[in-house]
TrEMBL record:
This is Lipoprotein.
Amino acid sequence: MKKNTALLLAGLGTLVALSSCQDKEEAAQAAKPATKENQLERFLLAEEPPNAQPVSAIFGSEPGDEVTVTGKIMGGDLVLTPNRALLVLGDAEKITSCNLMPDDHCSTPWDVCCDDPDVIKTSIATIQAVDENGAPIKEGFRGVGGIQELTHLTVTGTVAEGSHAENLVINARGIHVGKTDEFMTKVDKP
């Protein structure tokens, strides 16, 4: 089971790092909003945890390390996994989501396809909520506490077993939901 989870997470990390643009509507409709009965709501925190660090600052962490990380849901076409408690959190200080690009030619506003792939690899983390067996909960994060693409989060948790230099995975204990960027915000060129 752990081996399968590690392979799934490694694949997700690779998919995110190497993915490029696809159809906006298709990606936006990939999952249904969460319901009130969603078991992921127990992870929500009313207060933002102190001393959060951006994703890139905790990238050298080892499995078992306790971390508090902050970032934005971005990184590729599929950043919220339907029917699994998995999401991609990107370091907004190191990578730029396409909604902030003046010549936005990307198919999804939360993609980061214009950034250097080597920077992307060390600026994204997979966040997961796991069950008592260590497997991702079989519900998606979309809609939980307002979570969607481009939502800013602060997450407390533990670096998961199987994490390594090219695939940082964090088992969430708590998630504080911040603001969500507008999907189609444009930055004017100077």
